[in-house]
Specification:
Layout (H helix, E strand, L loop, with lengths): L4 E8 L3 H10 L1 H6 L4 E2 L7 E10 L3 H12 L5 E11 L7 E6 L3 H16 L12 E6 L6 H12 L4 E6 L1 E8 L6 E9 L4
Antiparallel strand pairs: 1-3, 1-8, 2-6, 4-5, 4-7, 5-6, 8-9
Helix pairs in contact: 3-4
Length: about 190
């Protein structure tokens, strides 16, 4: 039997109403940088662990591992607020909406890293900086656009929260209009 490669990541998907509000509240950013690769509403998520191209045979063991982690955690709320860019707005590669420091999120992320390491995945070398990617900045984007984004970002005052009920195993399907994301499995956290 031949295994197919799939592009996988583990994520927290905000509630639909929160996704809609994020799109509405960041409209000024979209207008300041229309040439950026903006995430549509369906693709807004918080990445817990990027797994990359993997044989599809790994999916059942990932599902089981993430289910075990999820059962050790209760559902919780996370606060979404603040606009930023990696590494910064002058040299932006990614424009994001931040997540307030939340110990339960940090512990969940740690347990996901350990479970993935047990399956043979490398531990992420960078510190965990939870965020929702709003846009990817294309190479050669004019400095004037980046300055306009920075100014527009200062005017975004969104401050909301979403309930984290599950850790989702996601598959990314590349396409000309951008990737399409599919939830392969939702590992449910225990009720709060």
């Amino acid at each position: 039997m031949c295994s197919t490669a799939v592009r996988l990541f583990l994520a927290i998907n905000p509630e639909p109403g929160v996704r809609r509000a994020l799109i509405d509240e960041t409209q000024s950013l979209r207008e300041a940088g229309p040439e950026l690769n903006w995430m549509d509403e369906s693709r807004l998520h918080l990445t817990l662990k990027f797994l990359g191209e993997q044989p599809d045979a790994v999916v059942p063991s990932l599902r089981a591992a993430v289910d075990m982690v999820a059962q050790r955690h209760r559902a919780f709320s996370m606060q979404i607020t603040g606009i930023g860019a990696f590494p910064n707005f002058r040299r932006a590669r990614v424009v994001w909406m931040g997540i307030h420091r939340e110990p339960r999120l940090e512990l969940l992320h740690h347990d996901i890293e350990v479970a993935c390491q047990d399956l043979g995945f490398e531990v992420e070398g960078r510190s965990f900086r939870p965020h929702l990617t709003l846009a990817r900045v294309r190479e050669g984007t004019p400095e004037a656009t980046l300055r306009a984004l920075s100014r527009a970002g200062k005017g975004v005052t969104y401050d909301g929260e979403t309930t984290v009920n599950s850790v989702d195993l996601m598959q990314s399907h590349p396409g000309r209009a951008g990737a399409r994301y599919e939830c392969l499995h939702a590992a449910q956290l225990r009720p709060a």
